[in-house]
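Table S2 (continued). Query chain:
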Amino acid sequence: MTEWTHNRDGSDLRTPCPPEYGVNPPKTRHKAPMSGTPRHTFVISDVHVADGEAPDPHRPLWRRYKDPAFFVDDSLTRFLDHARTLAGHERAELVLNGDIFDFDCVAVVPDDAPFRVSWLERARGLSAEEPKAVWKLTRILDDHPVLLAELRRWLLDGNDVAYVIGNHDLEMHWPAAQALVRHRLALPPDCPGELRFCAWFTISGGDTLVTHGNQLDPYCLCHDPLHPFIEVHGTTRVRLPFGDYAGKFLSNGIGWFNPHVESTYVKSPLEWFWFFYQHVVRQQPFILGTWLWSSVAALWASLRDGLRPALRDPLTLDDRVEEVARDARTTPKVVRAMHEVRAHPAVYRPLMVARELWLDRFFLLVGILVISLQAVSTLHLFAGVSGWWMIVLFAVLLPPFVFYTASVDSDVRVVSRNIHKRLALLARITRTDKVVMGHTHDARHERIGDVEYANTGHWAPGFSDMACTQPEGVRGFTWIHPDGAGGRRMELREWTDPDSVALPVVELPVKKSALERLRPKLPWRRKSPTEVVPGG
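Corresponding output:
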């Protein structure tokens, strides 16, 4: 990769953020001279930019996906040049639709930290407090000067950038993190392009809703994107969902899994057995112990954060809604309506979370073993029964456990199949006819009734094998551009570097969400003969 450490004007891209940006920095934004709404919109998501890790000579496959050889900075440079060509060098908007920076993948901690670091943080990575988020982001940006330089060039060319926060970059809610990005871009006050950060969605061109999609995932949603902060042990931090803690505690501690590819960690019992035998037994023989304490820690941290109340300032509630609306290019009424369209958090169903971690099966198996031991011990005490009968009793109780294990399916896959059920409602709320998401890493372009839906896949270092030789998934982007009839049309294109190809549109039947089925029955709607759409 090109060693690019300076901007084109000679300024250093690796300059650290000023100390005064460490806590509660000023919320500055560049007031760019507007030359009209961009007619071209490009959307990418799930780049998962993180710090690099050199391969371990003793464990060359351990977290190999973090090798700097797999950075996408150079590819993104060519993509932005390609986007300029597609737009005919007209003004365009680039929407970075969530999970651009991956804070959860940063597992290292500073040697001489200016803040307290717990033993769990040293083992699995820093928590989501503001100074720690800034430290992680600084480390990420230091490893990606090419990306910074190209984003700066894009903005200086008069194009816009909208950064939509996802679930793995929730720490971008910190004003200090946003200020650090602006500082490292070193944009002049009269920069013709505009950079803005959006809480969880934005409306581009007045016709396209762009949101990461994690709000429809019970495992990964931000409980309250208007108020994402909580207080834990006297410190303020961003509330992280279960999906983030699972990735942080398990992927950072068991480096044989690629967190960007579902098939590497959602497996059948037979697949898990073969995986352990083939890769793990000799190199990490105590992996079951690592899995157990990491899973328990992920469950505990998820419940601890998930059940805490959000920090809200009653004097600034309306100001916060207006701020989110301004960045999202919509009205406060739409923001409030969008805030209500979200999945029910999985942490309110602890068994559901434990099932994803396999803790239910572990404790069920331990329970069977304890019952067998206790029953035979009691019979041995009073009737002299041999202790070997414990094996027989265990074998008798084991089939129900096996049947239960075989019947359990990961809800992660169900979520990815059901996200589009609320698309029609989202489109009605925002008065758009196009919806773009990411999150699931499953590229698709569908037309459901009057709504077009596109998922841009992912740009992450996703490989189906530990040696990182078999890329998995589509590196896609959406291009929304004028259709010649006064409107805009959307294309989902696969980036083949240095070109792109359009992917086909699939027609699907309309499926009403539970809320839409309920709405005619709501008593406060019976008096209204007409439909009222938020934002109208």
